[in-house]
């Protein structure tokens, strides 16, 4: 009997309190300014790292306040996007955040191409800053192909790989030097970090020599790990320095930064309970009136001012006022110009909480029911609960790097440094005695003058606000001059299967408007209309103004910055993680069939007649008293509103401006306002003003119900019913000419993403369908597991049917990463 071995790796991430302690000497940034800099961070947990076309990407989003690393961020909306290898956004999910979390999924098309895709997440407020600070994660997608296509692609990829491998021999390594503090200064011992990368952006081992402009040897240097290293020497005046290396048999030379004849050298030395800051200056006034400021998590945590005229200074920064994570130390001169900057990573050595795992048995057969109980270790009373998600995944679909990015390394490291960090988990979880020195070397190189807090010092106007709900914003401009803003009344109407809502607002002096706080999950038809604001009529004109132009800016996805240079051939990527470079369509059938209960069919062409458009929209009745098709009216009428277009075209309907009377031979009685009929818009009661503001180009047809035909609406229809039906948004976008929509936009908004329930098959017998194995790589996903609130949590899942034993990976992820634990369930 073949056994299934379970490898369970538990990553516990708990939201802990991180409060910023302020030094009494803080001299900048009021509380109001701090609020303006309440940055946000997002981490996305996915069920695995490698996918086949046709599978699902299951994800959970964690949104935190970057100042506290708690789930108290002001935004309540997160955008998650899937970006293809051509840097095009191919899918977007809008996630509603509740208690700092939200979840969703992407359905990958079955015809998706091989390649490296990017999962990107951000809030609207995060768009105020560089998009480099959005959350991004690489995802590899493997295509399902026919045998003939796979053979052709394999031949092509093998050919590409050979040419690429040949090209690697002549590609120049990227070697950069980073003087500690910012600049090299003549006459002082300078500490200089360096970083060496290959053409794929990975650290490489190399060594070389430093020579002066006379070619004289100054010193040797070599990398430590991940292409990082450090060297120290005293640069002399009238000298420039060059590094020479030998890589793959080819010599390369690199210029070191030019050293300054006068300047300040700053060195920060870590002690047990504090940091020692040493300053050396060759400036005429030394370091007189210089300010030294420490910033952490967008806040000033301490500062010192040097009063005396000294050639140097030495002082300490206590660790007890700092939080775990990166701190930025900056030295300003007497004119508040930054001279030196250095990043340091503060470690608090707080023991990580653990999870307790128990199981009913230690070994399992195929299609066995596994029941695990997971709870927080009670020996950590300061951790009250944790909002978690759990995935059980075939280990072959996961990163092989045990030090890959997790939520702790992302929130405390990746999210505060530009560029890719190789093996980020190493700096937190490794037992290597050099780990701490390598972490400081990472701060010296990758954090060199490129830290996220640099732009926090600029008091610029924030263009993108926090979103507490779905938001629409834009600008109204003159149609003939899109650079000229216009004052207008803007109406927004939305409707879906649950509700219909009308909102109005007035633009500001710059023609800007916004609607905020919407909460809907269905695909919703949105119509935004601008009409002229007049001084004589408080309500403004009741018709759209053709001289106005609406430009929406809240619906535009941020640009995808940069482009990836893919040196490694696709075939080589998949060979590292999958048994085969590509899956055949027949093999993919098993995955899709078991995961979704779908039967895959050969391509077919379906020809069907559309449902009759009139009865499809009429819900309360099937035949009106009178009917008016707006097809011809839309194309040639000069009418400015719906009622004007109806005038003289429907018997018994008398229209004089805004006064409407519907008369019939049979009467249900009279009301106080005899002349006012019941107005319906797409089946829902609305005011006359709503009908008047609806552009003629948006109307499909109008029904009029009189007498007994209107009886279905009770007393509300006593004076008749005028039912206006608009085009579907998809029809409008397809049929309406652009010039006809100068002052009105109509589109479909998906609303908040509604994640689908993860499919869990039920096997009646172990022997059923022996020739149809279940090849799903993710067999369990639960994004809503809260540990600690109600004791233990049971995690049940059924082992799939495999032809051979296989390892699985169980990941428990919560809001602040803390630890890796390994447990083996085997005999």
Low-confidence stretches: 1-35, 163-169, 450-459, 537-542, 563-586, 606-611, 666-673, 732-741, 803-809, 812-827
Global Rg: 33 Å
Number of strands: 47
Q: Determine the number of helices (DSSP H or I, runs of at least 4 residues).
A: 12
- Beta-strand content estimate: 35-45%
| Terminal-residue CA separation | 13 Å
Describe the global form.
Answer: elongated
Portion of residues within helices: 10-25%
Side by side, the strands of the main sheet go 44-27-46-1-47
What number is the mean pLDDT? 76
Largest sheet: 5 strands, mixed
Q: Which structural class do the helices and strands define?
A: mainly beta
Structure description:
The strands form 13 sheets. This protein has a 5-stranded mixed β-sheet. A 5-stranded mixed β-sheet has the order 3-9-8-5-6. A hairpin with a 2-residue loop joins strand 37 and strand 38 (659-662). Helices cover 12% and strands 37% of the residues. With 827 residues, it is mainly beta. The chain starts with 5 loop residues before the first strand and ends with a strand.
Q: Which terms summarize this structure?
A:
827 residues; mainly beta; five-stranded mixed β-sheet; 12% helix; elongated; disordered N terminus
Itemize the secondary structure elements and their pairings.
Layout lengths: L5 E8 L17 H6 L3 E7 L3 E3 L3 E10 L11 E7 L5 E8 L4 E7 L7 E8 L12 E8 L1 E2 L1 H22 L5 E6 L10 E8 L9 E6 L4 E6 L5 E6 L7 E7 L2 E6 L8 E7 L3 E8 L9 E6 L2 E7 L6 E7 L6 E8 L5 E9 L8 E5 L9 E8 L9 E9 L12 H6 L13 H4 L5 H11 L24 E9 L2 E5 L2 E8 L4 E7 L5 E7 L5 E9 L15 E5 L17 H6 L7 E2 H12 L16 H5 L8 E4 L1 H6 L5 H5 L6 E4 L2 E4 L15 E4 L2 E3 L1 H6 L5 E7 L15 E6 L2 H7 L8 E6 L28 E10 L5 E6 L9 E6 L3 E9 L2
Parallel strand pairs: 1-46, 3-9, 10-35, 39-42
Antiparallel strand pairs: 1-47, 2-4, 4-7, 5-6, 5-8, 8-9, 11-12, 12-15, 13-14, 13-16, 16-17, 18-19, 19-22, 20-21, 20-23, 23-24, 25-26, 26-45, 27-44, 27-46, 28-29, 28-32, 28-34, 30-31, 30-33, 33-43, 36-41, 37-38, 39-40, 41-42
